[in-house]
Structures are given as structure tokens and as C-alpha cells.
Amino acid sequence: MRQLRLLAVTGTAAAALALTACGGGTGTKDEGASGPTVAQTGTPKTPRDATTTDGTPADGTDGTSGGESSGSGTAGDAPGARTDATDARPSASAGHGGRGSAGGPPVLCNGANTTVTAQPLRRPLNHLLLTVRNTGGRTCELPYYPVVRFGEMQWVPQADRDTQPQAVVSLEPGASAYAGVLLSAPDGSGAGGMTSHSLTVAFQGMTPNSSGGPSATPPLPAKGVYYDSSLKVTYWQQELDAISSW
To answer: What is the pTM of this model?
Structure first.
């Protein structure tokens, strides 16, 4: 009887051990359902646009890809592009060619910034040479030709168009320009001849027959000069040689 009880207890313990080893038939299945997989236990993948608390990308990159420049500016905003654009920009002094460099832009030559002399010539006969010298501090320009008037003369002598220069005469401070005056016909064919003791030289502006400013009154020889209806002038010339044989 006692031996039978011992065997019964032994059998019950063995059955309990068997059930524990099997987990009640559910231990292995439940463990597989609730336990993490290999992918879940590894380091989680981070989205490329995720950032850490300090504002840097969580993936350790600098937020750029494939060599693209950072920021949202265009290529022209890059320092290199801006420097190139600045270097290509012309300086403020470029393109002036030196004109007007003495004291500012050129002004018109007139009686206020020049001195004018009138000198009778022996050759060619019956000619007067006008010389204008820039006495101002700025470059001045002499458009067209001098408008001469002897005494109270009421008409304006015409200019010889064959003497018109290709460019407006420009005088740096201290420089001179010239014009010739034919006083009378060498063969005496002119009409209305008379002698004058005064001369007024007027200057033109940048449009024909416009005023260029104050006139000049260069002195004449004491005996005066004789002129007639043949009176005419040359255009202003940069060089005296241009009218030396006129």
C-alpha cells in the first residue's frame, strides 16, 4: 500500500515536469509572437531629413547629396560667381579716353576761358590768323567756325566747308587752335571794301549758329584791316598746318 502511494506521487511529479517543459503547449508559440525579430533588435534606420536636437542631420551627413551646393541660393549667389561679376564690372574711370580729365568734363571754348589774338599775315596775302588759347582749368571744345564781325558789320561771313575737320577741336588747358580769315579778294574783285579798327569773334555751341558763350574782342593793328565782300573764314583747326596754305 505504501509502495503504491510512492509510485503515485512519483508519477504526478513526472507529469508536472513534462508540462513545465512543454509550457502548457503554448510557450514556444507565444515567445515567437511577442519577442523582437533580428530587424527589430538592430539599429533603427533614420530618415534622411531627420535631425538631432542641435539641428544637424541625424544620419551624420551635412544635409547635401551628390555634390549639390547647400542652401537655397542660385549659382550666381555663390561667392566665386559674385567675385567674377565684380571683377568684370568696369571701373568708374574707364571709357573716358582722357577727355576732360583736367578739372572735369569738357566745356565750350569762349571769351571767358580763352585768349584770342588776330594777326595779319604777309602770306597768303589779305589773310588774318586767329589763334585761340585755352586759359581755363578744364578742357574746352571749339565747334564749327568763328563768327567774325568787323566794326558794325551787319552780315556774317561764310565758312569754307572744304576746311571742316573730321572731329570737334578739343583744347587741353594751355593748348591753342587756329582759324584763317580771308579779308579781301587778291585781284580786287570784291565789293564794298572798307577799313575796320575793331573785331569781335563769337563762338558757336554744339548746334550750328547757337551761342557758345561770351565773345572775344582781340585787338587789331593801329592802322586797322581792310576787308570787302570776299570775306570768309575757315573752320577751327587743331593744327596750324591745316590752313597754312589756304
So the answer is: 0.59
